[in-house]
Structures are given as C-alpha cells and as structure tokens.
Amino acid sequence: MNSIGLISMQYARPFAAEHFPLFARMKELGYDFVELLVPEPGEMDLTAARAALADAGLGVVLAARVNLQRNLSSEDAASHRAGIDYLKYAADCAAALGATVVGGPLTGNPLVFAGRAPQPVSETERLSRKQRCVAGLKEAGDHAAGLGVTLAIEPLNRFESDVLCTTQQAMELLQAVDHLAVRLMLDTFHMHMEEASISEAIRLAGSLLVHFQANENHRGFPGTGSTDWVDVCRALHDIDYRGPISLEPFRRNDDRFGVPFAQWRPPHEDESERLAASAAFIRSHISLTEFRR
Amino acid sequence: MNSIGLISMQYARPFAAEHFPLFARMKELGYDFVELLVPEPGEMDLTAARAALADAGLGVVLAARVNLQRNLSSEDAASHRAGIDYLKYAADCAAALGATVVGGPLTGNPLVFAGRAPQPVSETERLSRKQRCVAGLKEAGDHAAGLGVTLAIEPLNRFESDVLCTTQQAMELLQAVDHLAVRLMLDTFHMHMEEASISEAIRLAGSLLVHFQANENHRGFPGTGSTDWVDVCRALHDIDYRGPISLEPFRRNDDRFGVPFAQWRPPHEDESERLAASAAFIRSHISLTEFRR
C-alpha cells in the first residue's frame, strides 16, 4: 500500500520550527508523510525537524526549489554549477531528515515563476541544455547514491518549464542519464495539461517512477475537479507502484474577479475536514484498484 | 448548426496577404470561418482581406492581442487608455472585415507571455482592477455596439492572466459591465485547467456565450487528448449555443527533451488530413448531441 502525504505549503511557507506541531495534526488527518520544500540554509533546524517527525510518526519526502541562479539547464557556468551543488545540498538535507527521495523540477529553467516569457530555442541550444542536464544529474546522482537518496526529475506544465514537460521527454533524459539514483516523479496537475492520457503516461514511466503527486486539475482538493482518479489509480496499480503519493491541494476556492490563481496564498479557513477526506479519497481509490477484476 | 473555424496561427504568424490563398484551403478542409488575430495597423490590407474571404466563402472572427502597454487592468493611466483605444480599434477592424465578434483576454494583465511572475495583489488593487475593466469595457462596448460588433471577454489559465481565469469570475465581471455588446467566450484549453467541470461552466455561461474555442487539453488536435468532447458538446447543446466554434490545434507533436511547448512554432509538415478530421470531429460531435435521448 502506498503512503499518502501532504505538502507543507498547505499550511505555511516558509515552514519552520513553529509549524512542527502541525506534523501531529497531519498524522491525525490520515497522512503518512509530509512533503517538505528543501529548506534553505538556516531556514530549519534539521535535527529538530527529524525529531519532530519521529515524534509524530510521520515520514518525509523533499521537494527541490530551483531558480535561474541554480539551474542545471543554464548556459551560464556559475548557474549550472550552482544547480549541481544545490542538488547535492538537497540530498544532504534529505539524509539529515531521513528522507530517501528529493523530487522536483531538477532540470531547472523555470519560466513563469522566474518572470520569463516563452522564447524560441535553437537546436544547438536545445541539445546543449540536454547535455548540461545529463552531466549535472550524473554528478548529483553519484552524490545522492552515496547517501541512499534518489533524485526524481519532474516534468512541469509548459508555463512553468521550457525544458521538461512530458513523461516522454523525461524518459528520453533518464535514458541518457542512466543512473540508478536518478529517477522520475509525476504530478497529475501538470500531466492533465500536457499528456494525451495520464494513465498511458504512468504506464510509460513504469518502474522508473519513485514519487507521485495526486493533484486535481485546478489544484483544489482531489475529487472536486475533473481528473479521472479511477483511471489514474488503476494505472499506478498496473505498474505496481508502491512509492509515496503526496497531495498539494493549495489552490483556495476563491473565484472573485482578479484573485491571481497562480499566486500561493495561505489557508483562510480550517481545511481539516477536506484534508482528511482527501487522504481517504486517494487511499480508497488505491485500495479498490485491487478489486477491479 | 454552429459554424466551425480555424485560427490563422495554425499556418502562419503574422498572417498577411501572401497567406490569403489559405482561405480557400481552409474551406476545402471543412471550415466555415477563419479566426484572425486583430491585425496591427499596416499589417494587413483589410479591404483586400475582406474580398479574399468573400472569394473563399469564409466567415471571420477576430482575436484581440493585449499586452502590458494596452491593458484595461493597468493602474497606469496611459496603458489603461491604450487598452480601451485598442478595443475600439479592434471593433473597427471587425467592422471593416465583416466580423461581428472580437474575442480574447480583453481584460489584459498578461502574465507569462509578458514575462511577469505571479505576484500577490492587495484587496484595494484587486477591486481597482475590476473597476478599470468595467469602465473600459463599457466605453469600448458602446463603440462596438455602434458598429454591430460584440466584444467577448475570455478567461485564460492562471499562468496567462492574473485577473480572469474562470467562468464564474467572468460572470461577476459581465454582471458589473451590464452591456449588450460585451459578452463571453470560452476556450476548453484554459477551462480544462481551471474549471471544476467544463460542462457545468458552459451551463453557467448560458446565453452570455457568443464564441467558443474547442481546444484539446494539450492544444493538439481534438480527439488526441483527454477532453471529454461528448460532455462538452452536450453542454453547448443544452444552453442552445448557436455561435461559432473555432479550433487552435497549434501545439505540434514534438516530445523531444527541451522543446518549449508554450512557444508558438510554425507547422513542420502538412497537417491537412488532421485538420479536416478535426473539423469533422467537432462537427459530428455537435450533430450527434441532437440524438442523445
């Protein structure tokens, strides 16, 4: 049975020591692990965090945060190097916290959140970006492997990344990286936008999938949108996926004109009932895939 | 029966006199109208274009292009004014071409394509943006009405606009504008990302809907993705929608690592067979809604 997790951003960003009591709350709501953003240096006492997680009986997965200054894809040597160093640092944080997976858009080149507009790319530059990602992931993968940590690259939608958007693109990259500590994570929010079929993409990923984010098409609570969750969970079952499944339902239901949906906002009311139902929703879907035939 | 159209960008951008022979090609492929981007001043001879459309027996709908310098939502008075003047200009172009609808993100505030990152907005500024959009749409609506043209506001996904993303938000704005020449258009590409249910959103729009874009979740050819077209077309039938339906399947099928999907690219092969099938796909779905009970 897969473990079910919740992103820390559901409650707060940045997530610091004052928020550690929320670990017990997550556990009560039915979550097995928390997905933490990789803390910036000095943002979180990792030893205290690990103890707080243990106290709450909660596991942990890490989500990497890239930007243009730490960017595997960058043609700027310093940014490329900082991108590699950041992944090593993220693996160190994982080891310190007891996490075995660091996922996220590790290939870099953030688009809308870095204030970049889509631009054409020459074939030479496209291939160079790939080469830089391959080299960087091999080096960071070696470091992660030594710590028992797996790096999981994540395709994002076309507006958040201009290098990696689909499972097929990720498979091409992983084949070139060819490293046991470099694997794949998928997020249904992005897949819903970019894949011809979410379930076919999951089957394509197969045994390379090590982390999964079950997000609704609009990033609200699962079951409140149009994702075909039965189809998604059957595909996970078909590839015998046993890894973590985390939820990030942090788009608040606020349809007033002019509220910017892509901008993260803290919760404005108690979401406990919906969060508990969301964990049960995904868990029950996964359970029932066993009995479909 | 709804008329079925194709966006000019499917072939070329900018679309100029040299491309007018494509009008006859579109007609042959099964399209009733072309959706043209509102030409910038001097970009297209409108009289010649109108004659070419008539020769081909093709109708026309216009798609407005906003930017930060012509932006109804802007707090900068000059940009706000330029936003209003642009909508009047677009209505003039429509009248010159024989179009009766100008659609698009008329409320402005482009995000990713203007290189803007999502930012928080104060409640005061949110309400000011709404007020500016209402005033601008009323003024431009008066001008359009005098020409027999309707302006259709379009909700975009969260990464393309930070003012108008859902049908509910649009309904709130239209209620405030309260103008017969200001109505709504919807695009399933954006709806797929932002709406809890595309068909419920169409039913919410009801009689205010004057233009519709039938785009696949990944902007490829309809029927090649995960949109539930039967559900979409039944909803259009239920609200008795008789207006135009246009297609914009301009994401080319190219899953090589590092190809930026949000960047428009020209066709790299003959797409005629798929374009003809796409027109027939939507037309047949619409036809069969009549016979579902």
UniProtKB/TrEMBL annotation, chains A, B:
SUPFAM superfamilies, per database record: Xylose isomerase-like
Xylose isomerase-like TIM barrel domain ranges (all copies): 23-276
Keyword Transferase: no
InterPro entries per record: Sugar_Epim/Isomerase (IPR050417), Xyl_isomerase-like_sf (IPR036237), Xyl_isomerase-like_TIM-brl (IPR013022)
Keywords annotated in UniProt: Isomerase
Sample GO molecular function, one term: isomerase activity
The keyword Metal-binding belongs to this UniProt entry's keyword annotation: no
Name of the protein described by the UniProt record: Sugar phosphate isomerase/epimerase
Lineage start: Bacteria, Pseudomonadati, Pseudomonadota, Alphaproteobacteria, Hyphomicrobiales
